[in-house]
Amino acid sequence: MAAPPAIVLSQPQMGENIGAAARAMKNFGLSELHLIAPKCAWPNDRAQILASGAGDILARARIHPDAAAALASFNLVFATTARGRDVLKDIHTPEAAAEKLRAASAAGASTAILFGGERAGLDNDEMSLADAVITIPTAEFSSLNLGQAVLLLGYEWLKSADATPPIRTRPSHALPASREELTGLFAHLERELDAAQFFFPPAKRETMVRNVRAMILRANLTDQQARTIRGMIAALVKNKYRGNI
Fold it and tell me: Average pLDDT of 152-179?
């Protein structure tokens, strides 16, 4: 199992954003939080409120005076920035960074993702300590809330090893309709269609009947669904004779 990267927040200004970041970490399997010289009081009540179930991450958070101290134990560090044109390091999308972080972690490296403060982001000295950069593609507005940025990177980390199938269908415990139920449905429907003179011209009746049956069979009806359709047919016929339709 690859150990998840640590999340390092440099000079965060608001406890709410630290709490939101912790909650995002909890959602996606990240557990190690480092804070560099937070601008807000610490511990912080607002952070606890926004963490909403991730209070254990806040309780274990480590405080450091500067980026050099916070990053000293890590072998691979990615820094996040919206100013990709201003750096000379390799710039990764979140997806590419997550794959590289997971590969490094699986090989035994200790990894981290460094986030800048809400107002100005990371300064040049902090950027110089990172091996590479992550820039999150956006449309017209590049600035993201700190909690949003952590959530997005956490999602990409989890997704890089997630085996969830692209499409899932809720399992059904209903039994497939039996041949007896289906033939009963065919006979019921065809009888009423004959009464409504649906099969026209008569010479094509057999072909039309086969087509109708094929459509029903392709639906892979359950026994309950077959009974429901017969009930619908009966209700329509009953209302027709009452003059309601």
Answer: 88
Strands 33-36 and 91-92: unpaired
Q: Where are the domains of the chain?
A: 6-159, 179-242
Which residues, in sequence order, are bridge partners of residue 133?
A: 79, 91
Crossing angle for the helix pair 94-106 and 146-159, to the nearest 10 degrees? 60
The predicted-structure confidence for 223-239, as pLDDT tens digits, reads as follows: 999 999 999 999 999 87
Same fold, 6-159 and 179-242: no
Query: Where does the pLDDT of residue 28 fall: very low under 50, low under 70, confident under 90, or very high at 90 and above?
Result: very high
Contacts of 24 (CB under 8 A, 6+ apart): 30, 147, 148, 150, 151, 154
Contact present, 75 and 104 (Cβ < 8 Å): yes
Rounded CA-CA distance 144/89 in Å is: 21
